Amino acid sequence: MTTTTTNTTLSLSAIDQIGLTCTDLDAAQRFYCDVLGLTLADDVPGMARLFGCNGVNLILFKADSVAPASIVYFKVDGTPGAIAQNVERLKHAGVRIEKEPQCIAKGWHGHDVWLAFFRDPFGNLLALKSDVPVG
Predict the structure, then answer these.
(1) 124, 20 in Cβ contact below 8 A?
(2) Residue 3 confidence (pLDDT)
(3) Is the N end or the C end of the chain the one with fewer CB atoms within 10 Å?
(4) Are 77 and 99 in contact (CB under 8 A)?
């Protein structure tokens, strides 16, 4: 008996954008541009703002309330201590830190993996991730 299969695999190449919700587009712009250093990539007046992050857009949609979301992990330089320096900058900007930097994996693919978690002004959980080379 011969079976015929259909190739249903998608041909995805990269993540284009990640969507989050917010209740205030101006406050979102202040946080994502002024605090995190992303660039304003586009504006859909009254509906959304897009922030560029090294080729991936983070799009914040205006809503009456903030929906639970996945965690967005921002890559930090893999230099020892870089993640702690960035967390101190966030604290200085008044950002609520959920979890201080900690090494969650030692020697993973030749790196010590560090994570720190924080919230944007709307309660979205964000993270910094730093892969520090071992050696």
Answers:
(1) yes
(2) 61
(3) N
(4) no
